[in-house]
Amino acid sequence: MEPLVGLVSGLAITLGLLIGSFLNVCIYRLPRRESIVSPPSRCPACGARIRPWDNVPVLAWFWLGGRCRDCRAPISWRYPLIEVVNGAAYGVIVWRYGLSIEAAVYAVFFSVLLVITVIDLDHQIIPDRISLPGIPIAFACAVWLGRITWLESLLGAALPAALFLAIVVLSRGGMGLGDVKLIAMIGALLGWRLALLTILVGAVAGSVVGIGLMVFQGKGRKTAVPFGPFLSLGAVVSVAWGTPLIHWYLGLGRW
Hints:
Blueprint: H1 2-29, H2 59-63, H3 78-97, H4 101-123, H5 128-145, H6 150-171, H7 177-190, H8 192-217, H9 228-250
């Protein structure tokens, strides 16, 4: 069975790399309100169409020396990095959940969070084109998987979103509405318990990074730090270790 598991995980990694290439398109085009379907990929510097063989994930970046074939403008290292991260995540997900609907749902969920993370880091926005349709889709997937009830999914979307909305109102812009929609999408898939864990993990991670920026880069308390990436991290942690963490926290179980 082990060779078969390795083969399946390898295929999952390959699929993740290919989808990672598409995620790069989404990350570039969605904030610009461009179609993610057409036109074909082009160099942002010279506009030359990227040839199919120059779109091979990771490898193309290396054989082009990290530069456009036509104008020799540099291509960011972030493109192959996103492909590698997405590919590795798919491999781990399939290794853990096997070839299942659950694995497919979590793989797509990870890819969506990856796109949101990079867009939020770049532009401090979370596109409605992702989060708004993501809420009902996440609800449907949660009910389909059957790990939580439809009521838990509904509460998972509503309660954290209401909490974040209150923060938006009280902070007068300290948090964006994009975070409200993102936590609603996360909660709809994971339920209210893991949604609250997501917020806790995200808040701790955000605090650590914020303190690090203040200490090592001289940033002030009012420096804007997007919260979407930390919510995404919290959601990944919740999917991977959520239930054991909750049991440990409540003293209901042991590691």
